[in-house]
Amino acid sequence: MKQITLIILTVLTSWSVYCQDITGDWYGVLKAPGMELGLVFHITKTDVGYSTTMDVPAQNAKGILATKTSFNNLVLTFKVAQMGIEYKGTLNPENSIKGTFSQSGQSFPLDLSQEEQQVLSRPHYLTILLLLH
Length: 133
Description:
Blueprint: H1 2-18, E1 24-32, E2 35-46, E3 49-56, E4 61-65, E5 68-72, E6 75-80, E7 85-91, E8 96-103, E9 106-113, H2 129-132
Antiparallel strand pairs: 1-2, 2-3, 3-4, 5-6, 6-7, 7-8, 8-9
């Protein structure tokens, strides 16, 4: 009986991991010294994989297309080549993504969730980095 229960539990766990849906809107707050910047990522499923666009609401930047998006073994990665941006994060069981945002040789932790996040009103000294490239 214990063996059957273990097999059923293993199959159900594997099935739930396999069925994780990464598509939708993902929100995060990029925190760097002296600034906080809200980011929104829109991930859609395509015939050949995934596609991502990025919004930076504080800069009125919308629909920035990622040049590459992948989701394998619960790891989401995407690149915005024209801006030198890379993101790599792991989908957690609580449906959040813990990851790292990199641009121009600098890396910052960036966790994402599907719940919109509040950005504190702070100076955006480094936000220009997103527009320089």
